[in-house]
Amino acid sequence: MKPLLIESSFPMLHNDMTIARAQMQHTGKMPPVQGLEQDVVDEMQLCYVLHLMTTQHNAEAMQVIDTLLDEDEEPSERTPLQAAWLYLAQMTLYVEREEYPLALSSAESSLRQLGEMSGKKRSDDVLAILASLLYNLALIHHNSDDNSRAAKELTKSQQLFERLARKNSERFSAMLLYAVEASADVITSRTKQMNVFAHYQSASALYEQMLDSGDENEVRSALTHLVDTLRKEGDIMLDLGNGRNAVKYYTKALRYQKKLSGDMGYRELTLSIGLARGLMRLANRRAAAEQLLTSLLPLARRLHATREAIEIQNLLNAKNRTVNIMSLIKGIFTIAAVMAPQATMLLA
Predict the structure, then answer these.
(1) How many domains in the chain?
(2) Domain shared by 40 and 180, yes or no
(3) Which position among 16, 111, 262, 339 has the lowest Cβ density within 10 Å, counted as fewest Cβ atoms?
(4) 8 Å CB contact between 229 and 207
(5) Phi, psi of 123 (to 5 degrees)
(6) Residue 182 and residue 66 in one domain
(7) pLDDT tens digit string along 113-139?
(8) If 0-12 CB within 10 Å is exposed, 13-18 middle and 19+ buried, where does residue 264 land?
(9) Could you tell me if 277 and 246 are in contact, meaning their C-beta atoms sit under 8 angstroms apart?
């Protein structure tokens, strides 16, 4: 997936920024703001963030955004829409750094700002930010091998960009094309995954037959291969969004792994993390997933499995944020009646 085009979500300005933007392009710096009205300064600051991001000065852009959003600074007259875009820009930069938990936090903050708007909740600017947030969420989940969620988020994002492009093709057509291309990539990936899954199913059946051979060495070898194959089947089911089947395969893999080793080691750890991921997909098992992840954290640290410990902590941190983000998006659509009546079906 290509990175988000942040300029497509940039809010419409109420002041003429032609000269200010020309100065930014020429000097690469923020023009002087002395004597200017606060609303002009606020819009000029947004233009400067956009300039930095579109010229690939991402580190400097992040510093400016952090300063503008710093709650300890003197309160600004910046509108919730402007703040929402700044959080979206911050999210985009975190995605580029692959700092996904921080990106999710920025997404939640952006949506909360949109929720504070008193009017114009059906404007193109609001829809553009929502469409861009969904695209970034899909990018996060695609890069995290969660193509099921990515496909759903891309579908919502694409439909929003289609609506926007019909009204303003120049502003939104490029981002619509990105969303369409990304959707095709994710759907193709899912088709390939099903083909690979069929291969692993055949391998599982073969290894299960080998368990009846009676030869101790052959049985142990078959068990080892069977555990690995079941784990891969669970991985694919998880990627496809089938949490129930993923739980089934990971549970089965853990059961066979116990026959190989009575201790909780690295293989048991990775299988259990997969099981927790599957449980998180089931609405009535999310509490169990959280309990499992919490119990696995000391094991990961004892095994010095740093990567897995970080993964567990990220899953625990991201669980509530992901739920909150989607709830906030649905709330904005429902309360503001942003879309046509089919919006309920779109977000189901």
Answers:
(1) 2
(2) yes
(3) 262
(4) yes
(5) -75, 160
(6) yes
(7) 998 886 666 789 999 999 999 999 999
(8) middle
(9) yes
